[in-house]
Design brief:
- This protein is an alpha+beta fold.
- The chain contains 6 helices and 28 strands.
- It has 3 domains: 87 residues; 83 residues; 197 residues, Rossmann fold (3-Layer(aba) Sandwich).
- An 8-stranded antiparallel beta barrel has the order 2-3-4-5-6-7-8-10.
Amino acid sequence: MSSFKLAGWFAGAAEKKSMANFSGHWFTTFGPMELTQDGNRVQGFYTFQQNSCPIEGSVRDGRLLFTYQEPTVEGEGWFELVRHSKFSGQWRPKGAPTWSSWNGEREFEGIWDSSYGLMRLVQEPDRVLGFYEGVGPATVEGRLENNRLTFHYHESRAQGEGFFELAPDATSFQGEWRADGTEQWAPWRGRRLAPVPGLLWLVVIEAHWQRSYFEKEYAFGHMLREFFTRLPQLNIRQRFFEDEAGLERWCRELMYLPEPVAVVFASHGTQDGLSVQGKPLSTDRLVESLRYADNILLLHFSSCLMLQDGKAGELARALQEAVRFPISGYDRSVDWAASALIEFHYLDMVLGRGLSPADAAQQVLRLVGYAGDENLPGSPYPAAGFRIFIPKPG
C-alpha cells in the first residue's frame, strides 16, 4: 500500500489562534451567515434554501466547534481562520461518518465581478492584496481604513492609484482610479460573486500530446468531460496550454472561480519535472500562480513521476509548503491507460460520491490493486505508485 505524506501550511497564512474572532457577515458555501462572538462563545444563523438556520458553538485553540440546525437535519462542524477574513472548515449531519467542506469570506475578501473583469481580493487585518487580468496579470495592494480601501495598481503597461468603498451589506463596492501622472478619475465598481451552494468544478489543464500528424486525436480531458457530464452539480472545463505562459495563465484563472474546484494537470512528466514541448517548467512561477487559489479542492497530476522524491517532485513539494489543498499523483512512470482507470475511480468518488480526497485516495489504493507500490502477479498493468499529500490540520 502507498503511504500518505503530509503537507504543511504555508507560513503566516493562518490567523493566530489566540486572536481568532469569527464575528461578522460571512459569505459561505451554504449561503450568507451572520455570527456574533462574546469571549469564546459564538452564535448566529445562516440562510440556506430560504431557511434561517441557527448555528452556535465555542472557540477552542483557534477553532470554532459548532452545531447547526436546519428544518430537517442537524449536525456539527468546525471552522478555522485561514487569515483575517477567510475561514475553512468541515461539517457533517448528526451520526454521519463523513465530513464535507464549508468555507466562508467576509469584508473585502473574495471574488468580485468588477468594471475591469474578475478580481480576487485577499484581506489581512489592515492590508488587502488583489489580482485581476488586465493586459496580462495585474495586481492591487493597499491599506484599509474603516470600509475604504486605498490602493495602488500595477499592470504590465500602466500603474496608478485608486480606492474602493465597501457597501454596508458587503455585496458590492464603489470606487475610482487614475493612472500615474494624470488628474482625471474614472469609476471602478464591483459586485461580489457568491458561491452557488452544491456546485463543483472539474478543470482539466492539458498539454497537447500529439507531436505529428501521424498521431491520432486523443486527450484525457475529452474522456473526463464525457464521463462526468452526467453529474448535474458539476461544471467541467478543459483548457490546453502550449507553453509555460499558457499554463500559468490557466492556473491564475482558477482563483476567480467562487466554488470548489478539482484540478487535473495532464502533461508529460520527466525526471526534470513537468514539461511542455520537451522543456521543464518553472516551479517558482507555477507555485505563485496557485498560491491564493483557496477554492481548490484537489490538485491531481495526471503525469508521470510528479510525486517522486527526486527532482521530478520539486513542484509538488514546493506546493506542499505554499498551499492548503491536497496534491496527488504518481511517483514513477505510469501506463497512460492504467492512470486513466485509477483517475476515473478517484475523481468519481470525490465529485460524484462526496468523499474527501484523502478518503477517496484510500479507497483507490484498496479497490484498485495495481494503484499502489506492489506489482500484482499476472496483471497487465505495473504498479502505479499513486500518492497523495494531505495538508496538516491547522
